Amino acid sequence: MAFASFLGRVLFASVFILSAYQEFNEYGLDGGPAAKALGPKYDVFAKRVQSQVKHLVTAAIALKGFGGILFIFGSSLGAFLLLLHQLIATTILYDFYNYDSEEKEFAQLFIKFTQNMALFGALLFFIGMKNSIPRRQSKKKVSKTKTV
């Protein structure tokens, strides 16, 4: 059962690690395609926050990469980093709520939004299961008294 759990964590984390690797390779001087896709959606957010899109993409890559690697080793911190990434990225990138339901963008964004919410739910499940399993306590040997 331990191997199946490890394999499941590796396969689940591979979604995030491979995505971070791809975005890192495409990063370039302008932040790559991720920055271009995030740019228009970020404009609304940027009115309130004085930072750059490139830094946000860098943080997203770091959250996915480090979170995915830590998750493979069964770390709750890794799961929390991935949760943070999913929470922020999903609501900003997949803004289906800004489109009319008849537009084609609505369906595409809604599907991606629901897929990311499923990943979010799986991370919550992992954290819940990790915290519900009692930790093993070392048993001390009790010395037996000799009876004559």
TrEMBL record:
Keywords per UniProt: Membrane, Signal, Transmembrane, Transmembrane helix
Pfam families to which the protein is assigned, alphabetical: HR_lesion
Keyword ATP-binding tagged: no
Name used for this protein in its record: HR-like lesion-inducer
Region forming the signal peptide: 1-22
Phosphoprotein listed as a keyword: no
Domain of life: Eukaryota
Residue stretches spanning the membrane: 80-97, 109-129
PANTHER family listed in its UniProt record: HR-LIKE LESION-INDUCER, HR-LIKE LESION-INDUCING PROTEIN-LIKE PROTEIN
